[in-house]
Amino acid sequence: MRIATWNINGGVMLESVSPKRYGAEGNISYYIDVLRAIDPDVVCLQEIHFYPDGHSQADEISRALGLSHVFQKDVHVSHLLPGRRMGQAVISRFPLEDRKEVLLPYPSFELKPKDGRVAARHDKYLLITKTAGVTIATTQFRVRIHRLARDDR
Q: Between these two residues, 123 and 120, which has the higher pLDDT value?
């Protein structure tokens, strides 16, 4: 089974790293083209956008790739585009069974980016499902590991 996972950032491409600047409206054709070349059986997607009419980028990607089984969760307001909501999904060539949504606990401390402002709180979910006898789990959160050290003494 071929499995791919990708944080598509709402389809909004990064135009510049310094200063950090994003492009305009999300375009998922790039992601579809790359995923089509990989030809996965299962795709885990993070930071997908849900549109005001209720459909999502996962719906579009699944149709384009011919992966007809979709398990998705609308999680929070998008930080990238006004009027959108953001979430995650598992799409599959095979039926998805035993679907579970697990709300993850939020840290008890404030998260602050380098600019010192307090980061917005967003719910985080773990999506768990089975397909073709394989358990698949996906979530989206950001953790930076600045340094790993080990004391061998």
A: 123
Write out pLDDT tens, residues 16-29: 777 777 776 777 89
Domains and CATH numbers, the chain: 3-138 (3.60.10.10)
Q: What are phi and psi of 145, to 5 degrees?
A: -105, 110
**pLDDT of residue 144 exceeding 60:** no
User: What b-and-e string marks burial along 77-105, b requiring 16 or more CB atoms within 10 Å of the CB?
Assistant: ebebbeebbbbbbbbbbbebeeeeeeeee
Cα-Cα-Cα-Cα torsion 8, 10, 12, 14, nearest 10 degrees, comes to -50
β-pairing, 14-16 vs 3-7, is unpaired
DSSP SS3 for 85 = strand
CA dihedral 103, 43, 60, 66 (to 10 degrees): -140
Please name every residue paired with 73 in a beta bridge, in sequence order, or none if there are none: 88
Partner residues linked to 130 by β-bridges? 97, 135
